[in-house]
Amino acid sequence: MTAPVQRQIALLVSVVGAVIVALDGTILLMAQPGMQRDLGASVAQIQWTSTGYLVAVAALLVIAGRLGDRYGHPRLLFVGVLGFGAASAGIALAPTVGWVIVLRAVQGGFAAFLQPATLALLRLAYPADRLSKPIAIRTSAIAVAAGSGPLLGGVLVAHLGWRAAFWGNVPLAFVIAVLALAVRTPAPQHAISPRLNLTSAGLLAVALAILVHALADVPARGWTAAPTLLEFLAVIGVATVLGWHERRTTHPIVPPAVAGSVPVTASMAILLITTAGLFGALFRATFYLQDVLRLDPLDSGLRVLPLTVLMVLGSPAAVAALRRYGARRTAIAGTVLVVVGIAGLSRLGPASTWMAMAVAFAAVGAGFAIVMVTATGTVVGDAPPGCAGVVSGLKQTAMNIGPIFGIAVAASATGTAASTMNSTLLILAALAALGLLPASRLPRRPAHQEGGATTAAPPVQAPTPQAAPARHTNS
User: Fold this and answer.
1) Residue 103 and residue 423 in contact, taking contact as beta carbons nearer than 8 Å
2) Among 403-412, 420-429, 462-471, which stretch is predicted with the lowest mean pLDDT?
């Protein structure tokens, strides 16, 4: 099989693998009300069907990336997607909400194996200077999945019940597993630190799990509640021990070549900050549309549709911008669009026109697509040989923690949705604006080769980058 065909297969597996995770997160939101009624679950138990998944996936992403670097990403993807599909089938058959919570955590663990592998496959299949286009395709597909998930979930749940939302993952997972067997990538280069340091892995998993749990519970408990503060202190303590151990071990969980890479760390900071602003704004705006403007879920979804459309259109535009202007200016422009869009949403009121709202959502969507393509391409393109998995895991970790943090900020506002929307959105716009700082640290030089390299450094020729807590949720 020729190299171009192999690249197309790797791209297809990467895209479909990312889509199944994005769809699952958005469809879940539509399944939860029916699940609660059918299983007689409490609101707190339904919340844990989201929180358990988020804790598991965040805790294991970096570890899964390291395992992929060592044993091969097609293998990790194969195991991850089969486990994801099996857990989905188990949830569809679950007799009690307790089983759903446990199996959702299992599903999150297998999703952690799946997600970094879908991104690392692109790094293995494409040279660094041609990564922008496949990453843009992947970003567009995730946007379509996230945008269509609620509609698809609504149809499935309305006609077949909430269990159908999980049965739908099973055939798709099987197809991805078959495609994964057809992927042929060059043998992975030896990882910079081939051994998996179990102490570092355990400390990292514990720190991330506690952090995600603390942030997910902020909407219910508040930032200053004793349990929240204790969990944050525990995160600081575990992270301190982890940092001390990482500096002294010969096999750190995050290799020094990754931790010391300015483009990689800056890109992850941008992704974390921007996703926090975006998802926090969506959370607050959705409440405003439904609780203040009294729109039903379908009408609310249509108001937000310009965001999805511009994410799809903005991804290929980002490739052209990268080729002409380089990663730094492109990321700054994308971040500014996100900030302007969120600030625009803060000025809306009951008398605002549909067009004004559409323009604001469109600006957020276009800016986020540009940031996603730029930062993801930089993370993966600048990955040292043998580290594609660990940087993909770190990138996915940022993409999981950012939305939870943003929603925690948005949900902590006191008062009615009408009285707090404007001030909360301005705070989230200011939060997103912090992304300009790491954006200014990205490579300046434009890429002139085909595909638009996102890095200023010479291409590294290595083997030729969830849902938020439920209301009571990305790819």
Assistant:
1) no
2) 462-471
